[in-house]
Amino acid sequence: MIRQPIIAVLGHVDHGKTTLLDSIRSTAVAAKETGGLTQHIGASEVPIDAINKVSGALLKAMNVNITIPGLLFIDTPGHEAFTNLRRRGGSVADIAILVVDITQGFQPQTIEAVEILKEYKTPFVVAANKIDLITGWHNTKSRSFTEALGKQNAYIADEIDKRLYTIVGKLSEYGLNSERFDRIKDFRKEIALVPVSAKTGEGIAELLMLITGLAQRYLEEKLKIEIKGPGRGSILEKDEIKGLGTTIDIILYDGSLRANDTIAFATSSGGVATSKIRALLKPRPLDQMRAGSGKFMNVDLVSAASGVKISGEGLDEAMPGSPVVQVTGEGYEREIKSEMSEVFKTDKIGVVLKTDSVGSMEAISMLMATSGLKISKKGIGNITKRDIIDAFSMNAKDPTCAVVISFNVGMDSDVLEASQTSGVRVFESTVIYKLLEDYKAFVDSSKKSAAKEVEGALIFPGAVEVMPGTVFRMSHPAIFGVRVLSGRIKQGYKLINDLGIFVGKIKEMQNEKAPVALAKRGDSVAISMAEPTFGRQLREGQTLYTDMRDTDCRALSKEFANLIDDDEKQLMQRIIKIKNNAME
């Protein structure tokens, strides 16, 4: 059979994710002929009859034959819910709605959501929310944006387009093409922007139409399941419920589960555990959601796609984001370990990563890999002193990896002192985007500092001409004028002649009696050298070269090649040739 697609809602705080879900739910309840909206743990099911009542005419215009039974919205909005709903490097969510406040545009968590959606390759539409806050907009009581727009003053349409194209511009920065939903020619190539008001409900009809139509048209094969097959899902949350003990909330995306079935899942200690299902629990009617055990009812069977609370023994160690597999024989442990090994895969050199769940760990790992950043150790839970020690061990290999990156977790009492003593940096945040941005800034800063240190220690190629008529002192020290023909010279550089013979070391450099730290091509300076005597080792018009070491030449040929231009590279080859000839 074809299951309903699973829809996740993401976006920046206060942009209206929860209000949008509430508006969708109330729309669906009002549109149903009988009873309330079907409610699941962590999810709300909007049946196809309710969608047809709200968006039927719009769906007919899309010319799509609807066979999906409805839409399953994850009603725990936010990145945490989205990343915890995971399956082998992807998301359990089939489609996402990215909520953007049309009056504010992109904010930090909006950017984070776009990055995560791209990494998980999850198709999404943009709900450009809060059109009711645009000056002059009046509530038409309609669920249709198109109908509501037709009743507004003429300037409102221009104002909405202006704000929408700001969003279009931001999405283009991430390589994504987008357009207002009613102007799109190919939904496979452009992301649809739907102006909505979660507060008034205007635009909900088009949003439901788009999600339903796109899921039907492009995801039908993905939505086919074996209804009687073994259940497979993902742990959304773990809770302590009075009278029930530890329970897990899962989203079931394949097959079915019954009471007394045995399920397997990954534990926070790195193993695989099993539990016999004591009870499958669903909430009572919608307005009684999210309360104690008395607010749930037992069911005998759940089938995909749905959300359900599971009560059973041994769930204390269950890890949010872990896969859940019905045990029907051997192989379940290997299946879970194989999937989890991908998440916990590490590099030989890299930072220590600690997160609150396996879902956020996978999301951060994917985003770091995209940026070329490495992770040497991963773990769930608080930062420990052991984590600091492990991070400190990276100092000898790469100082920028002597770091602990912490997402949404605390730290043990002795960690702060250990961090300060060892010099290990700890980056903490509850926003993935900010976390990675701060760490990347640290890496860039560290590399620039290291490059400056190396640059200061390197001897660069340089060639100077001893200028005629500029001998101020013959010896002890010899003081004379030079013109830099190519490259650069600095105080402390040793100079050789064109036979590779050492002439002397630059003691000081001056210009108009003022000290000079660096002289480049075209500069004329006076230099002093203690070793040579003019007329013996030195003469007017002579060309002298910097005495480059083999290590300098190798560094400037490879990792620091960007520090010299083509002219300096040619000069370096000439110096190498002079020194090689001198050795023969």
Describe the structure.
- This protein has 584 residues and is an alpha+beta fold.
- The protein folds into 4 domains: 6-219, P-loop containing nucleotide triphosphate hydrolases (Rossmann fold, 3-Layer(aba) Sandwich); 232-339, Translation factors (Elongation Factor Tu (Ef-tu), domain 3, Beta Barrel), CATH 2.40.30; 344-455, Translation initiation factor IF- 2, domain 3 (Rossmann fold); 462-583, Beta Barrel (Elongation Factor Tu (Ef-tu), domain 3), CATH 2.40.30.10.
- It has 14 helices and 31 strands.
- The strands form 6 sheets. The protein has an 8-stranded mixed sheet with strand order 2-3-4-1-7-8-10-9, sandwiched between helices.
- A hairpin with a 5-residue loop joins strand 14 (262-266) and strand 15.
- The longest helix has 26 residues, at 432-457.
- The N and C termini lie far apart (83 Å).
- Mean pLDDT is 90; it is low at 287-293.
